[in-house]
Amino acid sequence: MTLSQTNTDRLGDAGGFDFKRLLLSRELIVGVMILITAIAATMLSPYFLTAANIKNVVIGMSIEMIVAIGLTIVLLSGGIDLSVGSVVALSAVVIALAFNAGLSIPIAIAAGLCAGVVVGVVNGYLIAYVGLNPLITTLGTMTIFRSAVYILSGGYAMSSIPGSFKALANGDLLFGLPNLVVLVVVLIVLFHMAMWQNVWFRKFAFLGGSEMAALRAGINVKRLKLMGYVICSVLAALGGVVVVARLGSAFPNTATGMELRVITAVIVGGCSIYGGRGTVLGAALGVLFLALVNNILVLNAVSVYWQGVASGCVLILAVLSDAIINRGKRS
Amino acid sequence: MTAPNKVVEMTGIEKRFGPVEVLRGVDFELYENEVLALLGDNGAGKSTLIKTLSGYYQPDAGQIRIGGQAVSFGTPHEARDHGIETIYQDLALFDNLDVAANVFAGKEKVGGGWRKMLGFVDRNAMRNEAREAVSQMAINIPRIDQEVSAFSGGQRQCVAIAKSVMWGRKVVIMDEPTAALGVRETGKVLDLIRTLKSHNLSVIVIMHNIEHVMEVAERAIVMRSGTRRGTVNLNGPQDRESHDEIVKMLM
């Protein structure tokens, strides 16, 4: 007998804690999968549990983590953003150009983030106010801004980046933890808490649940949608800042195909492609899980060409498990 | 004996869409604390009349009075600010969220102290108030912290109505609340409508099923081709005379 049946005599009673729901939550499932994968990886390769390898994995996925936070917000609110990869590259190139022009580090970072704001406003305006389809709109802006990256950079890698800027990303100021890891953890905690508890950020879940109901509840749906795309693009632009700082150069082909990798990870982490469901923590775990799977492949000298097969299989298994868990529930 | 107060009074409402005259000078009144059924064939103008009252349409002529005060609604929000809530067939619920979030949608409570600074919501307070609101209804909600997508049609109606009760509305308009429900659920929703009176609400229900109308409503207004055909006072489900009268007006 389920909890809900035993409690019908008590009207509207919360009736204790719903353990079954917690056990079936995607965050926990992915968390357990991560543990299992990590244990398997330790057994498969002696190099997995070395500081160098862990550091590599964690730093390697930091940019995708940052991008995943923004995509979670957009997906939760019922949209999609394919332009994030292009925004990462655009921001990176704008920063490199700013350094070329002799501007200081804060101004260069601000310029990169501004590029994100511009793309976000373009996406958001077309989708929220003009009413275009988000998939097609961001497919368009993805192409446009990728071209813009090549035009701005002339197709060359730009590497006149000041050393102090590189030190920001590659240093470890806090207890020997790499700065990037600290940044990513802080962002994930901040955004997860905000989406969970903050009145304004919670509106994205309302919007994704039912746009009509959100409208009737007095939520300014258009402005909220626009803001979702702006936040997503600004986070992607922050990813671009990190790319430049970490690699010390801005390549025009930076983050090509990243949008699909991150969308895959976010969905593995429990986000619904139809909106209304998903958490930042889940998305981060999704990114971590896929990064671990890829790391196992690399450590066992499996050709990198197999990574796509692995992530694709994980994605389909995730969606399949969802279908099995939700079978029999009312739709 | 004093006559019961009119919560809503509409006089001479006219509305045309291009060449089509949808409402031709309709008078309408809703008394305090009554359940009024609005009947009529498709195209009789029920929906247009209701949408005029809930602010979706602006009448071409005529006057609307709420509690004796003349009003004109430019938007549904203005109507809602005057205490008129419309519950549509689709209920406008957030399937992905729990009862408390649905009840408080768009007006979530912010906690005190440090939570206020961060704009954090007060989940417990919202849960308790939502539980309080739904527990007064005639339908059981099993878990207050469950997503409403798992609920039955009747339970969903209950959540939608709890929202209006919670926000102190005066008038609730329900558009075919029993359409698409099974026999048992329909019975529950009819019970629910009856209990609304104890919350000082006046209810307008649009319904096609005369049996259901006889069960819940105290008065029925029948509309036909944009005019008010007549009014029938109802005395419970056994009142054959009123039943026949309604049928005659609908024919």
Automatic annotation (TrEMBL), chain A:
Keyword terms, alphabetized: Cell inner membrane, Cell membrane, Membrane, Transmembrane, Transmembrane helix, Transport
Cellular component annotations (GO), alphabetically ordered: plasma membrane
Domain of life of the native organism: Bacteria
Transmembrane segments: 28-49, 56-76, 82-100, 107-128, 134-152, 173-194, 226-248, 254-273, 280-298, 304-325
Protein topology in the membrane: Multi-pass membrane protein
One GO molecular-function entry: transmembrane transporter activity
Tagged with keyword 4Fe-4S: no
InterPro entries, alphabetized: ABC_transp_permease (IPR001851)
CDD domains listed in its UniProt record: TM_PBP1_transp_AraH_like (cd06579)
Location(s), subcellular: Cell membrane
Protein role: Part of the ABC transporter complex LsrABCD involved in autoinducer 2 (AI-2) import. Probably responsible for the translocation of the substrate across the membrane.
PANTHER family in UniProt: ABC TRANSPORTER PERMEASE PROTEIN YPHD-RELATED-RELATED, AUTOINDUCER 2 IMPORT SYSTEM PERMEASE PROTEIN LSRC
Complex formation: The complex is composed of two ATP-binding proteins (LsrA), two transmembrane proteins (LsrC and LsrD) and a solute-binding protein (LsrB).
Protein name: Autoinducer 2 import system permease protein LsrC
Organism of derivation: Sulfitobacter mediterraneus
Organismal lineage: Bacteria, Pseudomonadati, Pseudomonadota, Alphaproteobacteria, Rhodobacterales
From TrEMBL, chain B:
PROSITE patterns the UniProt entry points to: ABC_TRANSPORTER_1, ABC_TRANSPORTER_2
GO molecular function: ATP binding; ATP hydrolysis activity
Domain of life: Bacteria
SMART domains reported for this sequence: AAA (SM00382)
Keyword terms, alphabetized: ATP-binding, Nucleotide-binding
Classification via InterPro entries: AAA+_ATPase, ABC_carbohydrate_import_ATPase, ABC_transporter-like_ATP-bd, ABC_transporter-like_CS, P-loop_NTPase
Domain ABC transporter per the UniProt entry, residue ranges: 8-250
PANTHER family assigned to the protein according to its UniProt record, in alphabetical order: CARBOHYDRATE TRANSPORT ATP-BINDING PROTEIN MG119-RELATED, SUGAR ABC TRANSPORTER ATP-BINDING PROTEIN
The protein, known as: Monosaccharide ABC transporter ATP-binding protein (CUT2 family)
Organism of provenance: Sulfitobacter mediterraneus
Species classification: Bacteria, Pseudomonadati, Pseudomonadota, Alphaproteobacteria, Rhodobacterales
